[in-house]
Amino acid sequence: MILRKFFVGGNWKMNGDKKSLGELIQTLNTAKLDANVVCGSPAIYLDFVRSKMDAKLGVAAQNCYKVAKGAFTGEISPAMIKDVGVNWVILGHSERRHVFGESDELIGQKTAHALENGLCVIACIGEKLDEREAGITEKVVFAQTKVIADNVKDWSKVVLAYEPVWAIGTGKTASPAQAQEVHDKLRAWVKTNVSEAVANSVRIIYGGSVTGSTCKELASQKDVDGFLVGGASLKAEFVEIINANV
């Protein structure tokens, strides 16, 4: 039996202020949590969140650039993220891909640079509704995964997040069977294209309208190793989702 520690990321996106995030942090600091937990904070609050959050909880930036410094207005680098004590970054989120036009190639370059500079990466992949309906889910997610895998040397620093784009913020959740099917195929892809050891150890988490009411059944799936949670990570039910595997 392969034991992969349950991993739950909270992606706060462009939400929260010092008051509301401070209250959420207090809830998380005092809760009994049975998973690895990493919260993705807006960049402007990374220092604040890291200073308030209990050391057992991780903090992530929601994005970074592919070089250490320079004339890149509005961007932040892994070196800056590390400088405020933060050790994680979310890369390739569908909103970065589809709202801001980030390409697979750029996401691969960012992944390489983040890992080279000591950050751990939550790397996001997932198909859009028209791609699922056209029957090309596997083709899309395998292509996205390949670009990430080509830029990873140490897989212990990477969590893969499968997020069907049609389920993000829509209230639609992939059924537990749909999630398990893609996770199983992703793990098989990693086994074939990386190694069996990495396939057995890498955590593949699910994102897409995960809530307190959907988390238990999703968590029971063999290849669902946790969640990347959007809106619900700003609510008290986040604790319930973190403990979905208990």
Automatic annotation (TrEMBL):
<comment type="pathway">
    <text>Carbohydrate biosynthesis; gluconeogenesis.</text>
</comment>
<keyword id="KW-0413">Isomerase</keyword>
<dbReference type="Pfam" id="PF00121">
    <property type="entry name" value="TIM"/>
</dbReference>
<dbReference type="InterPro" id="IPR020861">
    <property type="entry name" value="Triosephosphate_isomerase_AS"/>
</dbReference>
<protein>
    <recommendedName>
        <fullName>Triosephosphate isomerase</fullName>
        <ecNumber>5.3.1.1</ecNumber>
    </recommendedName>
</protein>
<dbReference type="InterPro" id="IPR022896">
    <property type="entry name" value="TrioseP_Isoase_bac/euk"/>
</dbReference>
<dbReference type="GO" id="GO:0046166">
    <property type="term" value="P:glyceraldehyde-3-phosphate biosynthetic process"/>
</dbReference>
<comment type="function">
    <text>Triosephosphate isomerase is an extremely efficient metabolic enzyme that catalyzes the interconversion between dihydroxyacetone phosphate (DHAP) and D-glyceraldehyde-3-phosphate (G3P) in glycolysis and gluconeogenesis.</text>
</comment>
<comment type="function">
    <text>It is also responsible for the non-negligible production of methylglyoxal a reactive cytotoxic side-product that modifies and can alter proteins, DNA and lipids.</text>
</comment>
<dbReference type="InterPro" id="IPR000652">
    <property type="entry name" value="Triosephosphate_isomerase"/>
</dbReference>
<dbReference type="InterPro" id="IPR035990">
    <property type="entry name" value="TIM_sf"/>
</dbReference>
<dbReference type="GO" id="GO:0005829">
    <property type="term" value="C:cytosol"/>
</dbReference>
<comment type="pathway">
    <text>Carbohydrate degradation; glycolysis; D-glyceraldehyde 3-phosphate from glycerone phosphate: step 1/1.</text>
</comment>
<dbReference type="InterPro" id="IPR013785">
    <property type="entry name" value="Aldolase_TIM"/>
</dbReference>
<comment type="subunit">
    <text>Homodimer.</text>
</comment>
<keyword id="KW-0324">Glycolysis</keyword>
<dbReference type="GO" id="GO:0019563">
    <property type="term" value="P:glycerol catabolic process"/>
</dbReference>
<keyword id="KW-0456">Lyase</keyword>
<dbReference type="GO" id="GO:0006094">
    <property type="term" value="P:gluconeogenesis"/>
</dbReference>
<dbReference type="GO" id="GO:0004807">
    <property type="term" value="F:triose-phosphate isomerase activity"/>
</dbReference>
<dbReference type="GO" id="GO:0008929">
    <property type="term" value="F:methylglyoxal synthase activity"/>
</dbReference>
<keyword id="KW-0312">Gluconeogenesis</keyword>
<comment type="similarity">
    <text>Belongs to the triosephosphate isomerase family.</text>
</comment>
<dbReference type="GO" id="GO:0006096">
    <property type="term" value="P:glycolytic process"/>
</dbReference>
